[in-house]
């Protein structure tokens, strides 16, 4: 168990989704860790991600900008806390580059890629500091938005991305 894995019975303020993907976890992990690939699927249907920057080490920058069809931008910035290829990615918006605390920490994401006989059991968890933040994320459409992102990820790794 990773030092960043709490006792599952003790996680509070968590939203999560799980999906079995018919692709090897190395491929799914690659779609998560190459900016040009992540930009193709990151965000709900109809949104684009024209900006994706990644520094794949603990403390390294993870920054995206998602855009709606009418041009509204949704920037996000944080840092990676843990990267274990091809098993796990943990990132947070609680810090920026050089471990500078953010003005308002909202969540930490834990994404796992479990191998199931050549397929990937994909689990994305969003941990929130407060019940109010968790509820706000749920109200924003966590399951719909992250679910649509996963649909786009599945299409990329099963139909478009070469092995």
Automatic annotation (TrEMBL):
SUPFAM superfamilies linked: Bet v1-like
Domain Activator of Hsp90 ATPase homologue 1/2-like C-terminal: 22-157
Family: Belongs to the AHA1 family.
Domain of life: Bacteria
Protein name (record): SRPBCC family protein
Signal peptide bounds: none
Pfam families: AHSA1 (PF08327)
């Amino acid at each position: 168990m990773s030092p960043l894995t709490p006792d599952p019975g003790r996680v509070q303020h968590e939203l999560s989704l799980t999906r079995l993907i018919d692709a090897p976890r190395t491929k799914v992990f690659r779609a998560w860790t190459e900016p040009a690939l992540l930009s193709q699927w990151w965000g709900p249907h109809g949104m684009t991600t024209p900006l994706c920057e990644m520094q794949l080490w603990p403390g390294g920058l993870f920054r995206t900008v998602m855009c709606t069809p009418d041009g509204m931008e949704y920037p996000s910035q944080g840092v990676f806390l843990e990267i274990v290829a091809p098993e796990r990615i943990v990132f947070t918006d609680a810090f920026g580059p050089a471990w500078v605390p953010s003005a308002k920490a909202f969540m930490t994401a834990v994404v796992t890629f479990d191998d199931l006989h050549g397929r990937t059991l994909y689990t994305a968890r969003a941990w929130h500091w407060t019940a109010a933040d968790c509820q706000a994320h749920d109200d924003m459409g966590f399951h719909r938005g992250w679910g649509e992102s996963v649909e786009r990820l599945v299409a990329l790794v099963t139909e478009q991305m070469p092995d």
